[in-house]
């Protein structure tokens, strides 16, 4: 590509695979070299004069960052399907296109939701701890009793791509009955998986397992609060692979402690990382993972390819391969 058409791109972290090399052949790319994200001040400094940004879910991209980049900023490509870290209204006002990486991480994330559901239901954290601490005495008839899955009811909050993939696994594999919340009816889900769309309160009251798959937005922040947790069965297991802020975490700590629900399996928390001293980390019935839903080699490589395609298209003024609707 001629020197004059090369644009300036800031990438907030190294990515797996060779996608960034492809970007570097076409444009001048600067990659944040550290394992930790840039601070807000470092972000402002590094975006100055950039035409494109390739960002992670841990980077807060607000109007100040867009302003710091300057009038040439054409595209923000998020290396994630979720884009709650980006101020979409500000991007729309400034005519900046926003991209994300859907679909290629759906299976990986649904698999992890199943992992958390099984792990929390069968008390894998406590069981593993018993072995590593030397507390395991003997095989006990009533030792570490967990919850059975087969034939029970799964409640999926947010029947989008990942929610549907999770439901398929649980209905197909464990013959579960399916309830879900969604903004509109899903006749195909009802037909193929025997699902039934219900209000959130009914889903919480009737489900043995509840799995959260909605995007984080004003409407869903603290959707699962004290009152919602109080609706759930004391034997229920709650799984969250969406975003930490969808749950009121203080209320969850109390519910897990007081027997309000049986257990929780969480891939996402507030904040991330959660300090080891946090009461949730200390809760024996909370199985917590460090936001690894999409962490398979296949998914993360494909995400990188899409994120780079999105930058390239945005710089050329074309529709992005996966574009977030800013309307
Ligand atoms: N743990 C991880 O590593 C990962 C987490 N995620 C999270 O999972 C979320 C879902 O991803 P996808 O399924 O690909 O997105 P999606 O857009 O296909 O699904 C979200 C669904 O939630 C629905 N929804 C939104 N607000 C709702 C509400 N108030 N009540 C009921 N339904 C509502 C939407 O209509 C949509 O169907 C992402 O936004 C992201 O936050 C995604 C990938 C990996
Ligand atoms: O894609 C996302 O939204 C994630 O949380 C990580 O892949």
Automatic annotation (TrEMBL):
The keyword Oxidoreductase applies. Residues 115-293 form the D-isomer specific 2-hydroxyacid dehydrogenase NAD-binding domain. Residues 9-325 form the D-isomer specific 2-hydroxyacid dehydrogenase catalytic domain. The keyword Oxidoreductase applies. Its EC number is 1.1.1.79, 1.1.1.81. PROSITE patterns: D_2_HYDROXYACID_DH_3. One of its GO terms (molecular function) is glyoxylate reductase (NADPH) activity. InterPro entries: D-isomer_2-hydroxyacid_DH (IPR050223), D-isomer_2_OHA_DH_cat_dom (IPR006139), D-isomer_DH_CS (IPR029753), D-isomer_DH_NAD-bd (IPR006140), NAD(P)-bd_dom_sf (IPR036291). Pfam families: 2-Hacid_dh, 2-Hacid_dh_C. It comes from the Bacteria. It catalyses: (R)-glycerate + NADP(+) = 3-hydroxypyruvate + NADPH + H(+); (R)-glycerate + NAD(+) = 3-hydroxypyruvate + NADH + H(+); glycolate + NADP(+) = glyoxylate + NADPH + H(+). Keywords: Oxidoreductase, Pyruvate. Coiled coil: none annotated. GO terms for cellular component: cytosol. Belongs to the D-isomer specific 2-hydroxyacid dehydrogenase family. GhrB subfamily. This is Glyoxylate/hydroxypyruvate reductase B. It comes from Allorhodopirellula solitaria. The lineage of its organism: Bacteria, Pseudomonadati, Planctomycetota, Planctomycetia, Pirellulales.
């Amino acid at each position: 590509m001629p020197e004059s058409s090369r644009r300036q791109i800031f990438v907030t972290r190294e990515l797996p695979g060779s996608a960034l090399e492809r970007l570097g052949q076409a444009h001048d790319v600067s990659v944040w070299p550290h394992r930790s994200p840039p601070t807000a001040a470092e972000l402002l400094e590094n975006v100055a004069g950039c035409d494109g940004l390739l960002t992670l879910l841990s980077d807060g991209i607000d109007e100040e960052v867009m302003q710091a980049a300057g009038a040439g900023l054409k595209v923000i490509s998020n290396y994630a399907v979720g884009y709650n870290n980006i101020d979409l209204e500000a991007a729309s006002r400034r005519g900046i296109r926003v991209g994300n990486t859907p679909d290629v991480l759906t299976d990986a994330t649904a698999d992890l939701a199943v992992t958390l559901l099984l792990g929390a239901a069968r008390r894998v954290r406590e069981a593993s701890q018993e072995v590593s601490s030397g507390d395991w005495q003997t095989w006990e008839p009533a030792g570490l009793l967990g919850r059975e899955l087969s034939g029970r009811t799964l409640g999926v909050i947010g029947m989008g791509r990942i929610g549907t993939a999770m439901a398929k696994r649980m209905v197909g594999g464990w013959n579960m009955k399916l309830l879900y919340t969604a903004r509109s009816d899903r006749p195909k889900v009802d037909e193929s998986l025997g699902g039934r769309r219900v209000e959130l309160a009914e889903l919480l009251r009737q489900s043995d397992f509840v799995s959260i798959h909605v995007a984080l937005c004003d409407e869903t922040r603290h959707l699962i609060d004290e009152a919602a947790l109080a609706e759930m069965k004391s034997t229920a297991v709650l799984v969250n692979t969406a975003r930490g802020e969808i749950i009121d975490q203080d209320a969850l700590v109390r519910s897990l402690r007081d027997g309000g629900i049986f257990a929780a399996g969480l891939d996402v928390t507030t904040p991330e990382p959660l300090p080891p001293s946090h009461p949730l980390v200390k809760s024996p019935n909370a199985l917590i993972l460090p936001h690894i839903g999409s962490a398979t080699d296949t998914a993360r490589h494909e995400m990188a390819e899409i994120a780079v395609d999105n930058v390239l298209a945005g710089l050329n003024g074309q529709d992005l391969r996966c574009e977030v609707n800013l309307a």
